Amino acid sequence: PTTMALLVAHPQLHGTCIAFVGNAIMAIHLEQTPVGMQRLATLADGQAMSACAVALNKDATQLAAVFSNKQCLVWNLAQDSNLAITPFREYKSERRATSLTFTAGEDGQHLLVADKFGDVTRFSLDDKDSLPHNQCGSVSMLMAVAVTTDDKHLIIADRDFKLRISRYPETHVIRAYALGHEEYVSGVSVVTHQDNTRLLSTSGDGTVRLWTLEGVELDTWDLVGTPADVEPQQTQVKTPLSLAVKPKQRQWCRESTYSVTCVDDNVYVLCTRNNTVGHAKLVDNKFQVLRTIPLPATAQSLAVVNSTLIALTADATKCTAYTIAPDSQEAHELADMSGLIHSDQLAGLELYQSGLAKFYHGDCTDSNLPYFERKAKRANPGPIQEES
After folding, report:
1. Which of 225, 251, 221 is nearest to 236 (CA)?
2. CB 360, CB 257: distance < 8 Å
3. Rounded distance, CA 350 to CA 346, Å?
């Protein structure tokens, strides 16, 4: 989905993150006084406001972004505080991308791009004349892609509620499926906990789950909760974007999106359902929930820089960067970045948000309504009628 702003923390320069805001690529330097805002590059008109995902490689020498026009750009980053950025590669995807990640295996350096048609395409970063390679595929829309730190496993998250863990680059060898989510899996993150590789996943069902590479669920963090005063109700789905109440008394919004990141066993989840940031700590393969921080506007993206959270928000009037201190329960305004976004683009934020929901659950058209009607009927089949 396109978004107003995207953030990614710089792993080498302490106190620095890179932001895609409007038509600008910015570097935010927290350790400068006052906080430094450095414009690295200006995007072309066709790329402004259309970034779908961004990523940095492990040594922060390259930055990549995919756009809604199916274009993928890679830049080289200078290894100094000036962060000079120069174009490196330009790729064209056949389908609209949803997520991307870098990988560096024995067969060279590559960029993996997941798309909404269920394919992961591999682009070579070493050979500019190399053709794109279809790395793996799925029958469902892919929401996120990740690789383990040793580049030996590929993880994809899809719209059909599951994670698939495959060997890399022999992705036809499937190691495990992680099953348990009740809605689309919106994000996945690879973490190291107690010297073991673990997976974190977020979903439209309002939960964050911790998995092993064998697909075993270790713990669940419920972001929604079950209100005690909610009576069991029948599932009523009038449109694909309506609010659904499950027989389990769980309640969530279909427009909700969640993204997760983890630094030093601290797990941070950005939730657009109620514009909050959740913070928990991994202790012996369990979530220890610490705090929930409200954001004053529509949440866009989140990055962790030296234990400080940077969140970008946007509404119909402004785009703002906020900082959240390690022990704080409040977000403090860092900078107003509205000048990087045209006013009519800010005014169209609601269209972007509705487009985000359509991206996850299909357009509100009559052709999609029968699917949700059948889904509701399966959940509540009603009394069995005897044949005459």
Report:
1. 251
2. yes
3. 9
Q: With contact defined as beta carbons under 8 Å apart, do 267 and 285 qualify?
A: no
Please name the amino acid found at residue 385. Q
Q: Which residue has the higher pLDDT, 154 or 237?
A: 154
387 has a pLDDT exceeding 60? no
- For 161, residues 6+ apart whose C-beta sits below 8 A from its C-beta are 179, 181, 182, 183, 184, 185, 203
Task: Quote the distance between the C-alpha of residue 256 and its chain's center.
Answer: 12
Burial class (CB in 10 A: 0-12, 13-18, 19+), 92: exposed
For the cut 90, the answer to whether the pLDDT of residue 382 exceeds it is no
262-266 — which CB contacts under 8 Å span 24+ positions? 262/189, 262/191, 262/200, 263/304, 263/307, 265/191, 265/193, 266/304, 266/307
- In this model, does residue 356 exceed pLDDT 50? no
Amino acid, single-letter form, for residue 374: R
d(CA 270, CA 4): 15
Bridge partners for 13 per DSSP = none
CB distance 207 to 269 below 8 Å: no
Distance separating alpha carbons of residues 202 and 216, to the nearest angstrom: 15
Report the pLDDT value the prediction gives residue 316, as an integer from 0 to 100: 66
> What is the C-alpha separation between 131 and 215, in angstroms, rounded?
33
pTM: 0.82
Measured distance CA(223)–CA(203) in Å, rounded:
10
